[in-house]
Amino acid sequence: MVVIRMARGGAKKRPFYHIVVTDSRNRRDGRFIERLGFYNPIGATAELRIDKERAAYWLSQGAQPSDTVAGFFKKEGVSKTGVAAA
């Protein structure tokens, strides 16, 4: 099964996450198919950047987002049918 989830990067106590498309059997930080964006929770404001068109494409192909990534997609207006006008 293809999933969309976060892969952790960054230093100790300084997390940085890439939002990736991967096979569910791969490790969290292992091999991935495509990188869709990133989430940086550290700093004055948390920074989130997602390639909305590619995210909508993978959702239309049946990729299942994790709960956290699904929340990010909802916040950014990404769905299976495409990107909502903001």
Summarize, please:
With 86 residues, this protein is an alpha+beta fold.
Can you offer a commentary on this structure?
The chain has a single domain (2-83), classed as 2-Layer Sandwich (S16 Ribosomal Protein, Chain: A), CATH 3.30.1320.10. The chain has two helices and seven strands. It has 86 residues and is an alpha+beta fold. β1 and β2 form a beta hairpin.
Topology summary:
Elements lengths: L1 E10 L2 E10 L10 E7 L6 E4 L1 H9 L3 E2 L1 H10 L1 E2 L2 E2 L3
Parallel strand pairs: 1-5
Antiparallel strand pairs: 1-2, 2-3, 3-4, 6-7
β-strand amount: 35-45%
What CATH architecture would you give? 2-Layer Sandwich
The largest sheet is:
5 strands, mixed
Q: Domains counted in the coordinates: how many?
A: 1
Query: What is the CATH T-level topology?
Result: S16 Ribosomal Protein, Chain: A
What integer value in Å does the Rg equal? 13 Å
CATH level 1 name = Alpha Beta
Shape: flat
Structural class: alpha+beta
Average pLDDT reading? 93
Strand order of the largest sheet: 4-3-2-1-5
